[in-house]
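Cross-posted from the bioinformatics board.
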Amino acid sequence: MTNTPYNEGVPRLNNHKQIVWDRREPNLDSTGEIILYDNGTLVQITDDEVRDAWPDINDDGIIVWSSFRGPEGPFGPTADIMMYKDGVITQLTDDDEYDYAPYINNLGQCAWSKTLGQYSAQSEIYWYDGTTVKRLTYDGEAEAKSNQGGQLNELGQIVWTRYDFFVDPWEGEIRLYDRGQIRTLSPPWMFEAQLPYINNLGDLVWFYNDGSDQALVLWHGGHALHLTHGRNSRTNDLGHIYFIRWQEAGGWQAWLYRDSTFYQLTDDPTWSTDGDINNAGEVVWLYGIYPATDICLLQRYSPGDLNCDGSVDGFDVEPFLLALTDPHLYGVVYPACDAMLADVNADNSLNGFDIEPFVGILLEE
Ligand SMILES: [Ca+2]
Ligand SMILES: [Ca+2]
Ligand SMILES: [Ca+2]
Ligand SMILES: [Ca+2]
Protein backbone atom coordinates (compact mmCIF):
# COMPACT_ATOMS: atom_id res chain seq x y z
CA MET A 1 0.00 0.00 0.00
CA THR A 2 2.79 2.43 0.90
CA ASN A 3 6.53 2.63 0.42
CA THR A 4 7.43 5.90 2.08
CA PRO A 5 10.05 7.38 4.42
CA TYR A 6 7.17 8.14 6.85
CA ASN A 7 6.32 6.33 10.02
CA GLU A 8 2.91 4.88 9.11
CA GLY A 9 0.66 3.85 12.01
CA VAL A 10 -1.56 0.81 12.60
CA PRO A 11 -4.13 0.54 9.75
CA ARG A 12 -7.86 -0.09 10.20
CA LEU A 13 -10.12 -1.40 7.44
CA ASN A 14 -13.88 -1.33 6.76
CA ASN A 15 -16.03 -3.65 4.64
CA HIS A 16 -15.64 -1.38 1.59
CA LYS A 17 -11.83 -1.66 1.57
CA GLN A 18 -11.38 1.89 2.87
CA ILE A 19 -8.31 2.02 5.11
CA VAL A 20 -7.21 4.63 7.66
CA TRP A 21 -3.96 5.14 9.56
CA ASP A 22 -1.85 7.92 11.01
CA ARG A 23 1.31 9.14 9.30
CA ARG A 24 4.23 10.83 11.03
CA GLU A 25 7.65 12.15 10.18
CA PRO A 26 10.16 9.55 11.44
CA ASN A 27 11.13 10.10 15.09
CA LEU A 28 8.90 13.17 15.38
CA ASP A 29 6.14 12.51 17.89
CA SER A 30 4.74 16.03 17.97
CA THR A 31 2.92 15.85 14.63
CA GLY A 32 0.89 13.32 12.72
CA GLU A 33 -1.94 13.30 10.22
CA ILE A 34 -4.83 10.96 9.41
CA ILE A 35 -4.60 9.24 6.02
CA LEU A 36 -7.51 7.57 4.20
CA TYR A 37 -7.06 5.07 1.38
CA ASP A 38 -10.26 5.17 -0.65
CA ASN A 39 -10.62 3.21 -3.89
CA GLY A 40 -7.01 3.66 -5.00
CA THR A 41 -6.61 7.24 -3.78
CA LEU A 42 -4.82 8.54 -0.66
CA VAL A 43 -6.68 11.38 1.07
CA GLN A 44 -5.17 13.37 3.94
CA ILE A 45 -7.99 14.07 6.41
CA THR A 46 -6.13 16.39 8.83
CA ASP A 47 -3.57 19.13 8.27
CA ASP A 48 -2.45 20.90 11.43
CA GLU A 49 0.45 21.21 13.86
CA VAL A 50 -0.90 18.78 16.45
CA ARG A 51 -0.49 15.04 16.52
CA ASP A 52 -3.44 13.09 15.13
CA ALA A 53 -3.30 9.38 15.92
CA TRP A 54 -5.08 5.99 16.09
CA PRO A 55 -7.90 6.41 13.58
CA ASP A 56 -10.71 3.93 12.98
CA ILE A 57 -13.34 3.89 10.20
CA ASN A 58 -16.83 2.37 9.84
CA ASP A 59 -18.72 1.25 6.72
CA ASP A 60 -20.25 4.72 6.22
CA GLY A 61 -16.74 6.17 5.94
CA ILE A 62 -17.02 7.92 9.33
CA ILE A 63 -13.55 8.24 10.87
CA VAL A 64 -12.68 8.78 14.54
CA TRP A 65 -9.24 9.39 16.06
CA SER A 66 -7.29 11.07 18.87
CA SER A 67 -6.04 14.61 18.40
CA PHE A 68 -3.41 15.89 20.86
CA ARG A 69 -4.87 19.39 20.88
CA GLY A 70 -5.75 19.78 24.56
CA PRO A 71 -4.00 21.62 27.42
CA GLU A 72 -0.55 20.41 28.50
CA GLY A 73 -0.66 17.29 30.70
CA PRO A 74 1.99 15.13 32.38
CA PHE A 75 2.82 13.47 29.04
CA GLY A 76 2.62 16.53 26.79
CA PRO A 77 -0.54 17.91 25.20
CA THR A 78 -3.72 16.04 26.17
CA ALA A 79 -5.90 14.40 23.53
CA ASP A 80 -9.54 14.57 22.46
CA ILE A 81 -11.70 12.40 20.21
CA MET A 82 -12.40 13.77 16.74
CA MET A 83 -14.97 12.55 14.21
CA TYR A 84 -14.88 13.04 10.42
CA LYS A 85 -18.28 12.65 8.75
CA ASP A 86 -19.37 13.86 5.30
CA GLY A 87 -16.30 16.07 4.99
CA VAL A 88 -16.81 17.79 8.35
CA ILE A 89 -14.66 17.30 11.46
CA THR A 90 -16.35 17.56 14.86
CA GLN A 91 -14.97 17.11 18.37
CA LEU A 92 -16.59 14.51 20.69
CA THR A 93 -14.63 15.42 23.83
CA ASP A 94 -13.14 18.67 25.07
CA ASP A 95 -11.28 18.36 28.36
CA ASP A 96 -7.74 18.22 29.78
CA GLU A 97 -7.59 14.41 30.07
CA TYR A 98 -6.11 11.97 27.57
CA ASP A 99 -8.85 10.52 25.32
CA TYR A 100 -7.27 7.90 23.13
CA ALA A 101 -7.68 5.01 20.68
CA PRO A 102 -11.36 5.32 19.68
CA TYR A 103 -13.24 2.54 17.90
CA ILE A 104 -16.40 3.15 15.81
CA ASN A 105 -19.09 0.63 14.81
CA ASN A 106 -21.55 0.77 11.90
CA LEU A 107 -24.22 2.38 14.11
CA GLY A 108 -21.91 5.37 14.55
CA GLN A 109 -21.23 4.47 18.20
CA CYS A 110 -17.72 4.85 19.59
CA ALA A 111 -15.75 3.57 22.58
CA TRP A 112 -12.37 4.75 23.87
CA SER A 113 -10.26 5.20 26.99
CA LYS A 114 -9.79 8.33 29.02
CA THR A 115 -6.70 8.53 31.22
CA LEU A 116 -7.38 10.57 34.33
CA GLY A 117 -4.29 12.77 34.31
CA GLN A 118 -3.58 13.24 37.97
CA TYR A 119 -3.73 9.49 38.46
CA SER A 120 -2.04 8.49 35.29
CA ALA A 121 -2.36 4.74 35.98
CA GLN A 122 -6.14 5.18 36.09
CA SER A 123 -8.14 5.19 32.91
CA GLU A 124 -11.82 4.61 32.25
CA ILE A 125 -13.92 3.51 29.28
CA TYR A 126 -16.10 6.17 27.68
CA TRP A 127 -18.51 5.71 24.82
CA TYR A 128 -20.62 7.75 22.44
CA ASP A 129 -24.10 6.42 21.67
CA GLY A 130 -24.50 8.57 18.56
CA THR A 131 -25.86 11.51 20.55
CA THR A 132 -24.06 11.90 23.86
CA VAL A 133 -20.79 10.85 25.51
CA LYS A 134 -21.12 8.55 28.53
CA ARG A 135 -18.71 7.10 31.07
CA LEU A 136 -18.99 3.30 31.27
CA THR A 137 -16.51 2.39 34.02
CA TYR A 138 -15.41 4.03 37.21
CA ASP A 139 -13.11 2.15 39.55
CA GLY A 140 -12.40 5.20 41.69
CA GLU A 141 -9.14 6.82 42.61
CA ALA A 142 -8.40 4.38 45.45
CA GLU A 143 -8.64 1.43 43.10
CA ALA A 144 -6.98 3.20 40.20
CA LYS A 145 -7.49 0.36 37.75
CA SER A 146 -6.67 1.09 34.16
CA ASN A 147 -9.53 0.32 31.75
CA GLN A 148 -8.16 0.44 28.22
CA GLY A 149 -8.89 -0.56 24.62
CA GLY A 150 -12.65 -0.06 24.59
CA GLN A 151 -14.32 -1.59 21.50
CA LEU A 152 -17.98 -2.21 20.73
CA ASN A 153 -20.11 -4.22 18.31
CA GLU A 154 -23.54 -3.56 16.82
CA LEU A 155 -25.31 -5.52 19.59
CA GLY A 156 -24.46 -2.85 22.17
CA GLN A 157 -21.73 -4.99 23.74
CA ILE A 158 -18.51 -3.25 24.79
CA VAL A 159 -15.24 -5.03 25.65
CA TRP A 160 -11.96 -3.80 27.11
CA THR A 161 -8.96 -4.76 29.25
CA ARG A 162 -8.95 -3.90 32.94
CA TYR A 163 -5.30 -3.62 33.94
CA ASP A 164 -3.92 -3.46 37.48
CA PHE A 165 -0.48 -1.86 37.38
CA PHE A 166 -0.22 -1.62 41.18
CA VAL A 167 0.72 -5.28 41.58
CA ASP A 168 3.98 -6.85 40.46
CA PRO A 169 3.78 -8.50 38.01
CA TRP A 170 0.87 -6.49 36.63
CA GLU A 171 -2.46 -8.15 35.88
CA GLY A 172 -5.07 -7.87 33.17
CA GLU A 173 -8.59 -9.19 32.72
CA ILE A 174 -11.18 -9.14 29.94
CA ARG A 175 -14.35 -7.18 30.73
CA LEU A 176 -17.67 -7.22 28.88
CA TYR A 177 -20.53 -4.74 29.12
CA ASP A 178 -23.78 -6.34 27.96
CA ARG A 179 -27.37 -5.23 28.60
CA GLY A 180 -26.53 -2.95 31.49
CA GLN A 181 -24.14 -5.30 33.27
CA ILE A 182 -20.35 -5.56 33.44
CA ARG A 183 -18.65 -8.89 33.99
CA THR A 184 -15.23 -10.46 33.70
CA LEU A 185 -14.85 -13.10 30.97
CA SER A 186 -11.26 -14.27 31.56
CA PRO A 187 -10.81 -16.78 34.39
CA PRO A 188 -8.31 -15.75 37.13
CA TRP A 189 -5.68 -18.25 35.95
CA MET A 190 -5.46 -16.51 32.55
CA PHE A 191 -2.50 -14.34 33.47
CA GLU A 192 -2.25 -10.89 31.90
CA ALA A 193 -5.31 -11.37 29.67
CA GLN A 194 -5.57 -8.39 27.31
CA LEU A 195 -6.59 -6.81 23.98
CA PRO A 196 -10.11 -8.22 23.47
CA TYR A 197 -11.98 -7.72 20.21
CA ILE A 198 -15.68 -8.58 19.77
CA ASN A 199 -17.50 -9.19 16.47
CA ASN A 200 -21.18 -8.78 15.62
CA LEU A 201 -21.92 -12.39 16.64
CA GLY A 202 -20.78 -11.64 20.18
CA ASP A 203 -17.64 -13.77 19.77
CA LEU A 204 -14.37 -12.44 21.18
CA VAL A 205 -10.68 -12.97 20.64
CA TRP A 206 -7.96 -11.99 23.12
CA PHE A 207 -4.64 -13.34 24.40
CA TYR A 208 -2.91 -14.04 27.70
CA ASN A 209 0.53 -14.93 29.00
CA ASP A 210 0.71 -18.69 29.58
CA GLY A 211 4.16 -18.52 31.16
CA SER A 212 6.22 -19.46 28.12
CA ASP A 213 4.34 -17.74 25.29
CA GLN A 214 1.28 -15.72 24.36
CA ALA A 215 -1.85 -17.81 24.03
CA LEU A 216 -4.66 -16.77 21.69
CA VAL A 217 -8.19 -17.31 23.02
CA LEU A 218 -11.49 -17.52 21.14
CA TRP A 219 -14.59 -16.82 23.25
CA HIS A 220 -17.56 -18.53 21.61
CA GLY A 221 -20.92 -19.51 23.06
CA GLY A 222 -19.87 -18.57 26.57
CA HIS A 223 -16.69 -20.67 26.54
CA ALA A 224 -13.01 -19.81 26.17
CA LEU A 225 -11.19 -21.95 23.62
CA HIS A 226 -7.41 -21.96 23.35
CA LEU A 227 -6.63 -21.48 19.64
CA THR A 228 -2.88 -21.23 19.22
CA HIS A 229 0.13 -19.10 20.15
CA GLY A 230 -0.14 -15.46 19.11
CA ARG A 231 -1.42 -12.05 20.06
CA ASN A 232 -3.02 -8.76 18.87
CA SER A 233 -5.93 -10.52 17.19
CA ARG A 234 -8.99 -9.16 15.38
CA THR A 235 -11.92 -11.16 14.06
CA ASN A 236 -14.55 -10.47 11.40
CA ASP A 237 -18.20 -11.53 11.44
CA LEU A 238 -17.35 -14.84 9.73
CA GLY A 239 -14.97 -15.87 12.51
CA HIS A 240 -11.81 -15.30 10.46
CA ILE A 241 -9.03 -14.07 12.75
CA TYR A 242 -5.95 -11.96 12.02
CA PHE A 243 -3.14 -12.25 14.57
CA ILE A 244 0.63 -12.05 14.88
CA ARG A 245 3.13 -14.52 16.21
CA TRP A 246 6.77 -14.21 17.27
CA GLN A 247 9.08 -16.53 15.39
CA GLU A 248 12.73 -17.23 16.24
CA ALA A 249 13.79 -16.50 12.67
CA GLY A 250 12.23 -13.27 11.47
CA GLY A 251 10.44 -11.90 14.53
CA TRP A 252 6.77 -10.86 14.29
CA GLN A 253 4.86 -12.45 11.40
CA ALA A 254 1.27 -12.07 10.18
CA TRP A 255 -1.15 -14.99 10.46
CA LEU A 256 -4.72 -15.69 9.39
CA TYR A 257 -7.14 -18.24 10.86
CA ARG A 258 -9.92 -19.02 8.43
CA ASP A 259 -12.32 -21.99 8.22
CA SER A 260 -10.36 -24.06 10.77
CA THR A 261 -7.06 -23.52 8.94
CA PHE A 262 -4.04 -21.42 9.94
CA TYR A 263 -2.31 -19.48 7.14
CA GLN A 264 1.05 -17.77 7.60
CA LEU A 265 0.78 -14.53 5.57
CA THR A 266 4.37 -13.30 5.93
CA ASP A 267 7.74 -14.98 6.41
CA ASP A 268 10.61 -12.52 6.21
CA PRO A 269 12.93 -10.51 8.51
CA THR A 270 10.70 -7.42 8.28
CA TRP A 271 8.18 -7.45 11.09
CA SER A 272 4.44 -7.61 10.46
CA THR A 273 2.43 -6.35 13.42
CA ASP A 274 -1.02 -4.95 14.31
CA GLY A 275 -3.69 -5.05 11.63
CA ASP A 276 -7.36 -5.53 10.85
CA ILE A 277 -9.66 -7.87 8.89
CA ASN A 278 -13.02 -7.21 7.19
CA ASN A 279 -15.98 -9.38 6.22
CA ALA A 280 -14.61 -9.84 2.69
CA GLY A 281 -11.64 -11.61 4.28
CA GLU A 282 -9.30 -8.78 3.35
CA VAL A 283 -6.50 -7.97 5.78
CA VAL A 284 -4.35 -4.90 6.43
CA TRP A 285 -1.37 -4.72 8.74
CA LEU A 286 1.65 -2.68 9.71
CA TYR A 287 4.84 -3.83 7.99
CA GLY A 288 8.29 -2.77 9.14
CA ILE A 289 10.14 -1.80 12.31
CA TYR A 290 9.59 1.61 13.93
CA PRO A 291 10.05 4.22 12.54
CA ALA A 292 10.39 2.71 9.03
CA THR A 293 6.91 1.28 8.67
CA ASP A 294 4.52 0.74 5.76
CA ILE A 295 1.01 -0.63 5.21
CA CYS A 296 0.27 -4.03 3.67
CA LEU A 297 -3.08 -5.13 2.23
CA LEU A 298 -4.14 -8.67 1.41
CA GLN A 299 -6.76 -8.23 -1.32
CA ARG A 300 -9.16 -10.79 -2.64
CA TYR A 301 -10.59 -11.17 -6.12
CA SER A 302 -14.21 -10.08 -6.21
CA PRO A 303 -17.06 -12.46 -7.09
CA GLY A 304 -17.41 -12.71 -10.87
CA ASP A 305 -13.71 -12.11 -11.59
CA LEU A 306 -13.28 -15.63 -12.95
CA ASN A 307 -10.05 -14.96 -14.88
CA CYS A 308 -8.57 -13.21 -11.82
CA ASP A 309 -7.35 -10.09 -13.60
CA GLY A 310 -8.80 -7.69 -11.02
CA SER A 311 -11.96 -6.63 -12.87
CA VAL A 312 -15.30 -8.16 -13.82
CA ASP A 313 -16.01 -7.76 -17.53
CA GLY A 314 -16.72 -9.64 -20.75
CA PHE A 315 -13.49 -11.65 -20.44
CA ASP A 316 -15.01 -13.36 -17.41
CA VAL A 317 -18.04 -14.80 -19.25
CA GLU A 318 -16.32 -17.86 -20.67
CA PRO A 319 -14.48 -18.84 -17.45
CA PHE A 320 -17.70 -18.15 -15.49
CA LEU A 321 -19.62 -20.66 -17.61
CA LEU A 322 -16.76 -23.15 -17.30
CA ALA A 323 -16.75 -22.77 -13.50
CA LEU A 324 -20.50 -23.46 -13.39
CA THR A 325 -20.45 -26.44 -15.73
CA ASP A 326 -17.09 -28.06 -14.91
CA PRO A 327 -15.36 -26.65 -11.80
CA HIS A 328 -12.66 -29.32 -12.01
CA LEU A 329 -11.65 -28.36 -15.54
CA TYR A 330 -11.87 -24.71 -14.50
CA GLY A 331 -9.29 -25.46 -11.78
CA VAL A 332 -6.97 -26.95 -14.40
CA VAL A 333 -7.34 -24.00 -16.80
CA TYR A 334 -7.16 -21.32 -14.06
CA PRO A 335 -4.97 -22.88 -11.37
CA ALA A 336 -4.33 -19.54 -9.58
CA CYS A 337 -8.04 -18.67 -9.35
CA ASP A 338 -11.01 -20.14 -7.54
CA ALA A 339 -14.17 -21.54 -9.13
CA MET A 340 -16.14 -20.32 -6.10
CA LEU A 341 -15.70 -16.77 -7.42
CA ALA A 342 -18.62 -17.81 -9.67
CA ASP A 343 -20.82 -18.10 -6.57
CA VAL A 344 -22.04 -14.58 -7.20
CA ASN A 345 -25.22 -14.93 -5.13
CA ALA A 346 -23.06 -16.14 -2.20
CA ASP A 347 -25.10 -19.23 -1.31
CA ASN A 348 -22.03 -21.52 -1.36
CA SER A 349 -23.10 -23.43 -4.45
CA LEU A 350 -22.45 -23.03 -8.17
CA ASN A 351 -25.55 -23.22 -10.30
CA GLY A 352 -27.99 -21.37 -12.54
CA PHE A 353 -28.98 -19.03 -9.71
CA ASP A 354 -25.57 -17.34 -10.08
CA ILE A 355 -26.15 -16.34 -13.71
CA GLU A 356 -28.54 -13.44 -13.19
CA PRO A 357 -26.45 -11.72 -10.46
CA PHE A 358 -23.33 -12.27 -12.60
CA VAL A 359 -25.00 -10.57 -15.57
CA GLY A 360 -26.07 -7.83 -13.16
CA ILE A 361 -22.41 -7.12 -12.28
CA LEU A 362 -21.47 -7.07 -15.99
CA LEU A 363 -24.21 -4.52 -16.71
CA GLU A 364 -22.97 -2.30 -13.87
CA GLU A 365 -19.46 -2.14 -15.36
CA1 LIG B 1 -2.00 16.94 12.67
CA1 LIG C 1 -9.46 15.19 26.44
CA1 LIG D 1 -11.81 -10.51 -14.77
CA1 LIG E 1 -24.37 -19.63 -5.89
